[in-house]
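Figure 3 (text version): structure tokens given as input.
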């Protein structure tokens, strides 16, 4: 897997100024031809300017136009294999596998960059000090909340997932000052998550957000902001699949960061958790005799 420069361009295109956005569109439409262009020709094709080409390269994290051409050349195989587009009608199964693998690899790699170590450290400290944790998300993010509960409850943390917003609101209202609310929203703009986060703050509950790496409302509201890679959501929603994987990958990182910091106590709790499951199956065997 190479640098996936086309995925980076797709992710950042929506946030570029118009002069740079037009350049992105030309590159995405015919990346192979761009390899053989100079900056002036690219600017002309995009109805933009050579200065805008340089700004565009810097906006997507490259040193300049030569760097862009080098990365496109390095990723020529992926471009020719057409693995950077969304799933299309009648897509071959092997091609579907390639596209999902490329997108997943890219979003995991980018999440490693965007998940700030300081924020992770602050979050794990809040997890440790919390009396109870309320993770909440809607849609696919609710699955992430349940995954968080499954992991952290096994190491002794009290984690409660409440999808009924009325019940969760009342729980936050009577929570003590060690309670913690974890708002999960890929885009960071879900009204339900925003409303509950604001309420948690009003009730004196500590807050953490898990969103994609954009300027979004949810990340500005919380005490700690955790960010995963930006994953677009194309028509067939493969982006939703990849963003879900990014969020769950971030939960894994948080879990292992927590266990590393509080190793002995966590291992003891995990052992007890495993013993409880073994004991449960022994009960099954007893009643099936």
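Below: residues designed for each position.
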């Amino acid at each position: 897997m190479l640098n996936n420069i086309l995925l980076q361009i797709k992710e950042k295109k929506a946030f570029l100024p118009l002069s740079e956005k037009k350049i992105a569109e030309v590159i995405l439409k015919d990346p192979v031809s761009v390899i053989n262009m100079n900056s002036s020709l690219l600017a002309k094709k995009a109805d933009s300017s050579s200065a805008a080409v340089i700004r565009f390269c810097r906006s997507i994290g490259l040193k300049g136009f030569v760097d862009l051409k080098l990365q496109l050349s390095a990723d020529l195989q992926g471009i020719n294999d057409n693995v950077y587009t969304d799933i299309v009608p009648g897509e071959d199964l092997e091609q579907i596998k390639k596209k999902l693998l490329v997108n997943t690899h890219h979003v995991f790699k980018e999440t490693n960059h965007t998940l700030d170590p300081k924020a992770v450290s602050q979050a794990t400290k809040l997890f440790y000090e919390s009396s109870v944790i309320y993770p909440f998300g809607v849609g696919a993010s609710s699955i992430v909340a349940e995954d968080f509960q499954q992991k952290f409850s096994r190491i002794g943390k009290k984690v409660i997932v409440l999808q009924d917003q009325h019940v969760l609101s009342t729980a936050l209202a009577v929570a003590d000052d060690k309670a913690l609310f974890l708002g999960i929203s890929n885009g960071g703009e879900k009204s339900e998550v925003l409303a509950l986060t604001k309420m948690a703050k009003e009730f004196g509950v500590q807050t953490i957000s898990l969103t994609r790496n954009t300027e979004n409302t949810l990340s500005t509201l919380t005490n700690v902001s955790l960010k995963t890679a930006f994953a677009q959501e194309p028509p067939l929603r493969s982006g939703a699949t990849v963003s879900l994987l990014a969020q769950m990958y971030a939960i894994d990182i948080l879990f292992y960061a927590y266990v590393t910091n509080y190793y002995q106590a966590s291992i003891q709790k995990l052992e007890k958790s495993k013993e409880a499951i073994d004991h449960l199956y022994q009960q099954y065997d007893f009643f099936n005799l």
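The chain has a mean pLDDT of 90.
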